[in-house]
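for the writeup, i need someone to sanity check this before i put it in the appendix. the sequnce is what the collaborator sent (i think, or maybe the updated version? ugh). structure was predicted straight from it, no edits. if anything looks off just tell me and ill rerun, i have time this weekend
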Amino acid sequence: MITAGSTLSASVGAWSPAATLSYQWKLGSKVVSTSATWVVPATAAGKSLTLSVAGSRTGYVTTTKTSVAAKVASGTITASKPAISGTPSVGQTLTSKPGSWSPSPSAFTFQWYRGTAKIGGATGSTYKVASADRGQKISVTVTGAKSGYTAATRASDGVLIQNALAATPKPKITGTA
């Protein structure tokens, strides 16, 4: 399968007698490259691709052979697991760290979860921990999208929201100076 982002190389076999070869990679009827290798851009997804190879030699008729057309599929985005930073307690803000993505998405979307249930409206890169989260695990999914690639979604590990101490008096210094 040919996908956006992959590097293609012409496989031409042995020409008899030996010939000087030239290449034409085409998307539809448009020539997009004349080298023996070609990196498929994201804009090629869904289009028909062919390779024509012309062999020439003095004293011989130039011969051109064209591959069977292949449809270019969307590329694949790969990603590591996102992480959550911040203090996991009520009133604090948690932040999603998307992790490493290749190729780099043009956009990220986020969805925060309490256990396995989506938290309504919690679709930003940060989430302010609510009292309903106390004692629950909070996680986030991150989706990366890029034109010509199939979107990828990865989920973080959950963080347990801890109870905060109800009374937290300010300390005082006592004694003789």
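The first strand starts at residue 7 and ends at 9. The radius of gyration is 28 Å.
thx in advance!!
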